[in-house]
# Entry
Amino acid sequence: MSTVLVVEDGLTDMEILSRYLQQAGFLVISAKSSEEAQEHLTNSQPDLIFLDVILPGKSGYEICRELKDNPNTSKIPIIFCSTKNSDVDKMWGTMLGADAYISKPIDQTELQGAIQKLIR
# Structure
């Protein structure tokens, strides 16, 4: 079973995303901040990471950049999942190394499509 780390500070979005991922057969680990995410990454390596852009502490953009710059985590696919969904936001995500960018509210079909492109 593949493991997904979801970094999301909104309870409703966390519940929806976790439910969709569990229905798709993933083990979900959740974090509400960059610090909590780092703790999880120190203990284990997920197969995929979902990041919100706006988080307490470091932004999702900062977390993404750090993960992609670190040889231990650089190969883990990252999907941004955010209400910040302008072309500029998506461009920043791509420039920082994100592998996909989906907008909230979360569409289950779009979510599954993004995952299928990244995990084979």
Helices lie at 11-23, 34-43, 60-69, 87-95, 108-118. The beta strands are 3-7, 27-31, 48-51, 78-82, 100-103. The domain at 3-115 is CATH 3.40.50.2300 (Rossmann fold).
